[in-house]
Amino acid sequence: MFKVLRTEGNARRGEFTCAHGTVQTPVFQNVGTQGAIKGAVSAQDLKELGCQIELSNTYHLHVRPGDQIVRAMGGLHKFMNWDGPILTDSGGFQVFSLSSLRRIKEEGVYFSSHVDGRKIFMGPEESMQIQSNLGSDIAMAFDECCENPSPYEYVKKSCERTTRWLYRCKAELDRLNSLPTTVNPQQMLFGINQGGTYDDLRIQHMKDIAQLDLPGYAIGGLAVGESTETMYHILDVVLPHAPADKPRYLMGVGTPSNIIEAVWRGVDFFDCVMPTRNARHGHLFTWDGIRNLNNAKYQLDDKPIDERCNCPVCRTYSRAYIRHLLKSGEMLGQRLTVMHNLWFYNNLMAEIRKALDEGRFAEFRAQWSDRLSQRI
Hints:
The protein is an alpha/beta fold.
């Protein structure tokens, strides 16, 4: 399922194999929360943009169109016409993001739908059942993501409950995968490490969940209020206790610099809405730094978004034209900017993998980590 091909310090170059293909790592997962990338980008576009894994969300697809409908349509792969690997988040992040609409109990979480207010219950078993109906390749464990900072005793109790929930997730997914009618009987479960910003809780929780010998492990509950330095510190603290022969997934992170720094510390999988969300507002990632196309100086600029970029957008359109589309509210503007940013992220990962292959990732990090964070 996962093999480390080579290392440079703590950084790892690997391959991950699942039911729908082999993924080269480190990898960025392109976020299509509701089975689509915001910005009118199709599954066919994703292939052209270098996407290896598509990520969708359990809670949102349960709310609409409903996971039973997706199952009736043959699973999420057929529904969205994507034949590559898919990871589904468990709905656990909505325990954090919809905090005003939920109540947490030992059995699970009671939500009020953000769409129509109807009552929804989701626990470990329900999350696994929904993800099984979706048929993703990687199902994430149901957990609680705490805000940073949160009181120590609360985070400790939350970690203990998340561990209990993980055992229930594993038992239920094992049961579902054994059924003859399961959409994807090779679906894998990844556990999620929590513990807020407390070193001892992070370490103990990783040790606890590593005992289940799952196909992969994620680090959750970061980039939710703490500083970048604190996030890097937590990675330094917890990753030595993560199984070395399993992929490590840093959830919801982040900027190009965050990714380079996390790869340096030993992370293999990433996801973030940043490239698509920022693109829709005209904030574009380039090898020279971050470019804001809303600036008036681009009004008569006939150059591509990034002169070093070979994406379909930069090969065809000027900064001036794309700025005009965004200012005019034309949907094409958002589509083109999202395509560029996704290409940039996927190409960044390809360059990281190449640097690791050639034993020069330390040099790559020194050259690009700070530079990619600069605003032009």
